[in-house]
Amino acid sequence: MQGPLPQVTEHGGGVWSLRVPIPDNPLGHTLVHVLDTDRGPVLVDTGWDDPASWTELTGGLDALGLSVREIHGVVITHHHPDHHGLSGRVREESGAWIAMHAADTAVVRRTREADPGTWLEYLARKLAAAGAPEDHLAPLRAARTSGRMRTLPGLRSALPDREIVPGELLDLAGRRLRAIWTPGHTPGHVCLHLEEEHPSRLPGHGRLFSGDHLLPGISPHIGLYEDPDDAIETDPLGDYLDSLERIGRLGVAEVLPAHQHAFTDSAGRVRELLDHHEDRLTGLLGLLATPLTPWQLAERMEWNRPWEQIPYGSRNIAVSEAEAHVRRLVKLGRAEAVPGTDPVEFVAV
Ligand SMILES: [Zn+2]
Ligand SMILES: [Zn+2]
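Above are the sequence and the zinc ion SMILES. Below is the predicted complex in structure-token form.
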């Protein structure tokens, strides 16, 4: 074949991206980045665990004159299956190490050990507490008692063997890649700052592999961190907004995200996302003039389609997002739980 395949983009300075498809998903593909090091190529994320995705990943490497057997290491931005799915297969073929932040490694470990019945029970309990109606809970309860349930995604995902430590340089021969902890989308999401001059000398401080934290045209999902064993009230939206400001301050020349396309003006994109969430929180405060459960709030929030048309699984994600926003408002002292309500209702203060 002449020249690189269309799914390969060269970014200069020993960095390439490969478009690895995500089956049946409107996102389309994950951008897997290849970083050349003195000990061999390192991947940032790997893509969805599917035969067609594997073919694209290895085909893309072939187009760069690389074999998957040469991969030296795998750096994972976060545990989601479109990022971490193929890591185990890459490690089997190459003996590469896999690095991840400890908080997301904990999620991987928990998911691998999860009993589907316990998980469904947790989900049903959590949705009931958020005010989900009985007809929404019934299928979960039926699946649990019948034993017929879909396998949980991530049951077989690879346990990382290295820890990404926030603020530290990764051990990559000949490269300066620093881990920046950016919790919010997941508890252990990291961005990776390539602290080297931009190959086209664009103004700014190097380049950023931003995972799902900072994307050019999508506001990443921020829900509650799902941990059945943790009683601590985390504030994922607060974490996300703090992480965004931290990334904005880096002043990078170019962002290499895990979906869509590379872009410059990171500070402008950070501002847009901060404004978007501020508008959303203000809108929710308006809705909470009347006491509402998180479920009722989710029904009234603006989504990409009317609530009646949102599929079952996406409603669960939407309610989690509504809860993350309510929790932020409570932490800010702008909303509070109405005493004595069950399921609990929230109201603006
Ligand atoms: Zn993700
Ligand atoms: Zn993703």
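The first helix runs from residue 51 to 63.
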